[in-house]
Amino acid sequence: MLGDEVGSILREKGSVYKVESDFLRSAIFTFLPVLLIVLLLFFLFRQQMKAAGRGAMSFGKSKARLLTRDHNKVTFKDVAGIQEAKEELWEIVDFLRDPRKFQKLGGSIPKGVLMVGPPGTGKTLLARAIAGEADVPFFSISGSDFVEMFVGVGASRVRDMFEQGKKHAPCLIFIDEIDAVGRHRGHGMGGGHDEREQTLNQLLVEMDGFDTQEGVIIIAATNRPDVLDPALLRPGRFDRQVTVSLPDVNGREEILRVHVKKIKLAPGTDLGVIARGTPGFSGAELANLINEAALLAARRGLSAVTIAEMEEARDKVRWGRERRSLAMSDKERIGTAWHEAGHAYLNMVLPHTHPLHKVTIIPRGPYLGATMYLPEGDKYSTQRKEALANLVVTMGGRIAECFITDDVSNGASGDIRQATSLARHMVCEWGMSEKLGMIEYGDGDSPVFLARDVSRSRNYSEDTARIIDAEIKRFIDEAYDQATDILTKNKHTVELIAKALLEYETLDASHLKDIIDHGEMRNPPSAPKPPPVPEEFRKKPAAKPTEDKPDEGGPLAGEVVGAPA
């Protein structure tokens, strides 16, 4: 056979052929890459879980932050303009300082305090001041921190938060924007039970379960108390509601005095003037006003902030920044000047109107021009004569525009919206219509909670709706006719105001009074300054003509030709 012959030949030549097999080495080379991949994935997963929350079991831990007593300590001296709220909350501070004073008489401090008020009024600052005055641990958490993508995490975090509070008692737990977790149960758009309701249920149980003698007090803040669940507001949970409202004129002056400590103020600056000129401003807006004034003074190269910078900052915060560089055509400037002249004249001659602050055709914010009014003091009510006068003033812009053109523009769209809203308030809410009487139609200006209000129908009939529409139109038509009559009889004076606006761009109440009484301004304002020109558009010196290329005298590169002032 051929195989036997090959084998005999190999044996004769002395060659030896051996086949060896190493099972361990092959197994290592086979499974080693798999083990390395598994170890790498485990390491990455472990690091990710640590970064997400100190391990896989930390999802249910509370995210409440414990503020140290020495870090950014705030006291009641740093809170101004809300004296009544401070006095009501001082009782909690007194309890935390000396609990036995209340316990020996059998009294108990409120388990929870709900602070209600518009945004920027200082609810969070007030809670920090309570903790600073009482010198106790202060836990802070947002309502949205409870809700998570995993079911049951919110309730677990609520339990953990109260356990931490009991360990540090006496202490304060502050829940900001509690409406994120405390909304009405059963009003969800998607049906019955959801994660937020489960979290709310646990919060209700914890607030009613722990003992007030332990010294754990819950303070919550919201600007939407109308959407909170009634079970959350009952005595035994949030026993007390503290309204933190917008400051009055004295409160605004106190707030300004607190914030001006951070800036360099010119001597003799009367903060009372700014306080009287900022009705409706919140504490946050006043702080922004002071900051804007300081920035403006720094841009102007001043050594201190004066009253002029504060007034300019006030106008910027309320109405927007001036846009002098906006390229308006001459036709638009003339139309804007007549429009604002109509508003300003009616505001000056009609009784029961707010005093005129100034009128300008310099674009500011979203407006091409503005007639600015400032009430003499804080106003908390509106009289019928005042509302009717405001309707007449609002009509003046469109009427004055029609004096110089046979067409109308969309410049009065804001006036139409404002007048319609005011007339609807007069008819549907304020009972100022003789035909409809003292009845409220609709739900007024209450904030809309879509899940609750989506199925509500109006509470009046079709016939009443037609009467409401007719009354709103009657109020506006009568105001339009009265404004037309006054402006037509005094068209010459309106024209003088419009020409003065075109020349000086901004007039105050004293300038308009001179024009109305004497036909001219005795002390006219200074001429308007041209808008600053960016460096890339500034005119460069012309190059000297050469023999090869003579100077043709044409416009230089980068020069704006024919740009309106």
UniProtKB/TrEMBL annotation:
<protein>
    <recommendedName>
        <fullName>ATP-dependent zinc metalloprotease FtsH</fullName>
        <ecNumber>3.4.24.-</ecNumber>
    </recommendedName>
</protein>
<dbReference type="InterPro" id="IPR005936">
    <property type="entry name" value="FtsH"/>
</dbReference>
<keyword id="KW-0812">Transmembrane</keyword>
<dbReference type="InterPro" id="IPR027417">
    <property type="entry name" value="P-loop_NTPase"/>
</dbReference>
<comment type="similarity">
    <text>Belongs to the AAA ATPase family.</text>
</comment>
<feature type="binding site">
    <location>
        <position position="339"/>
    </location>
    <ligand>
        <name>Zn(2+)</name>
    </ligand>
</feature>
<feature type="compositionally biased region" description="Pro residues">
    <location>
        <begin position="525"/>
        <end position="534"/>
    </location>
</feature>
<dbReference type="InterPro" id="IPR000642">
    <property type="entry name" value="Peptidase_M41"/>
</dbReference>
<comment type="similarity">
    <text>In the central section; belongs to the AAA ATPase family.</text>
</comment>
<feature type="binding site">
    <location>
        <position position="343"/>
    </location>
    <ligand>
        <name>Zn(2+)</name>
    </ligand>
</feature>
<dbReference type="Pfam" id="PF01434">
    <property type="entry name" value="Peptidase_M41"/>
</dbReference>
<keyword id="KW-1003">Cell membrane</keyword>
<feature type="binding site">
    <location>
        <begin position="117"/>
        <end position="124"/>
    </location>
    <ligand>
        <name>ATP</name>
    </ligand>
</feature>
<keyword id="KW-1133">Transmembrane helix</keyword>
<keyword id="KW-0472">Membrane</keyword>
<dbReference type="Pfam" id="PF00004">
    <property type="entry name" value="AAA"/>
</dbReference>
<keyword id="KW-0482">Metalloprotease</keyword>
<dbReference type="InterPro" id="IPR003960">
    <property type="entry name" value="ATPase_AAA_CS"/>
</dbReference>
<keyword id="KW-0479">Metal-binding</keyword>
<feature type="active site">
    <location>
        <position position="340"/>
    </location>
</feature>
<dbReference type="InterPro" id="IPR037219">
    <property type="entry name" value="Peptidase_M41-like"/>
</dbReference>
<keyword id="KW-0378">Hydrolase</keyword>
<keyword id="KW-0547">Nucleotide-binding</keyword>
<feature type="compositionally biased region" description="Basic and acidic residues">
    <location>
        <begin position="535"/>
        <end position="552"/>
    </location>
</feature>
<keyword id="KW-0862">Zinc</keyword>
<dbReference type="Pfam" id="PF17862">
    <property type="entry name" value="AAA_lid_3"/>
</dbReference>
<comment type="function">
    <text>Acts as a processive, ATP-dependent zinc metallopeptidase for both cytoplasmic and membrane proteins. Plays a role in the quality control of integral membrane proteins.</text>
</comment>
<comment type="subunit">
    <text>Homohexamer.</text>
</comment>
<keyword id="KW-0645">Protease</keyword>
<dbReference type="GO" id="GO:0008237">
    <property type="term" value="F:metallopeptidase activity"/>
</dbReference>
<dbReference type="InterPro" id="IPR041569">
    <property type="entry name" value="AAA_lid_3"/>
</dbReference>
<dbReference type="InterPro" id="IPR003593">
    <property type="entry name" value="AAA+_ATPase"/>
</dbReference>
<feature type="binding site">
    <location>
        <position position="415"/>
    </location>
    <ligand>
        <name>Zn(2+)</name>
    </ligand>
</feature>
<feature type="transmembrane region" description="Helical">
    <location>
        <begin position="23"/>
        <end position="45"/>
    </location>
</feature>
<feature type="domain" description="AAA+ ATPase">
    <location>
        <begin position="109"/>
        <end position="248"/>
    </location>
</feature>
<feature type="region of interest" description="Disordered">
    <location>
        <begin position="518"/>
        <end position="565"/>
    </location>
</feature>
<keyword id="KW-0067">ATP-binding</keyword>
<dbReference type="InterPro" id="IPR003959">
    <property type="entry name" value="ATPase_AAA_core"/>
</dbReference>
